[in-house]
Amino acid sequence: MLSRKKYLFIREEFIIKNFLRTIFAHIVTTIKEDWKAVAVIIFASSLQAFAVNYFTLHYKFPDLGVSGIAVLTNYMFGISPNWVILTGNILLLIWAYRDLNVRFLGLTVTAIMTFSTALTIFAKYPLPLPDDKFMATVIVGLLKGSAGGLMLNVGGSGGGTDIIGAAMRKRYGLEVGRFSIFINLFILAFSIGVIGLESVVYGAVGLYVNGITVDSVSRSFDKRKQAIIITNIPDEVSQFINSYGKGVTRLEGRGGYTGQVRPVLFTLLEPRHVVLLKRFLKEHDQHAFVSISDASEVLGQGFKSWRSL
């Protein structure tokens, strides 16, 4: 009979092997089905690794999440952040992989592997960097924010607290935003004793720029204008909008005062097409009524894919 220690060793080995096979299968499936998203994830992860290696570590700025812990261990003990980030994310994936969908898991693993590989490569090639710390913190915020926004746009993840968030939402229906804030505040507070208040303040500026850039980049891909049009020439207006490859939904409306039945056109356009639409209506129907508003996110055919969620 096997001893309990031997049994546990074999059991753990089986779990790890099964986990690695599952991860590999998910990566292959994701690449086959959604190679464009994989390409974006690889580029964005490499951009993040560039920012961490050449700016965060060089200027001893703090960071957040698993990356924040990794840079702190590097400052304190000289441990390569690459290994801390890789190990931390693997442990989180083992904890949560049963709760993650195939696409999210595949993209996340791709991001982690790309980041770790790129960080190792960049560490071998030093670059001349600016002496101005404020400029450096703005640059790192822009680089990491752009990378984060690109990942969000394709429904991907760079790992870390994103893995925890995805698992907690599925298991308990909870959002972990506040939890992440507390963890990151603790990391920043602890960083003061390691790198000093000045570096933490500079780092906080970079993190602020990072947050703004993430929102701007992620929203710019989905930015659309919602137009509601009441016109005497609905067929002509519909054809004009269709000529730009945009769809139109025709509704039947009734005037609240006159009771007159009027067609109402509903469409979603890019900002440049709104200008052309207004010019068209000015030339052909100046009695038309048009309402234009911002659509922060549009899902469906011709717009953002449901696969990105």
Quick rundown:
The protein has 309 residues and is α+β, with helices and mostly antiparallel strands. Helices cover 65% and strands 10% of the residues. The chain folds into 2 domains: 4-220, no CATH class; 224-308, Alpha-Beta Plaits.
Provide structural commentary.
A hairpin with a 6-residue loop joins strand 2 and strand 3 (261-269). Strands 2-3-1-4 form a four-stranded antiparallel sheet. The protein is of the alpha+beta class and 309 residues long. Helices cover 65% and strands 10% of the residues. It has eleven helices and four strands; from the N terminus they run H-H-H-H-H-H-H-H-H-E-H-E-E-H-E. Helix 3 (65-77) runs antiparallel to helix 4 (81-96), helix 6 (133-153) runs parallel beside helix 9 (197-220) and helix 8 (177-195) packs antiparallel against helix 9 (197-220). Mean pLDDT is 81; it is low at 5-10. The protein starts with a helix and ends in a 14-residue tail after the last strand. The protein folds into two domains: 4-220, no CATH class; 224-308, Alpha-Beta Plaits (2-Layer Sandwich).
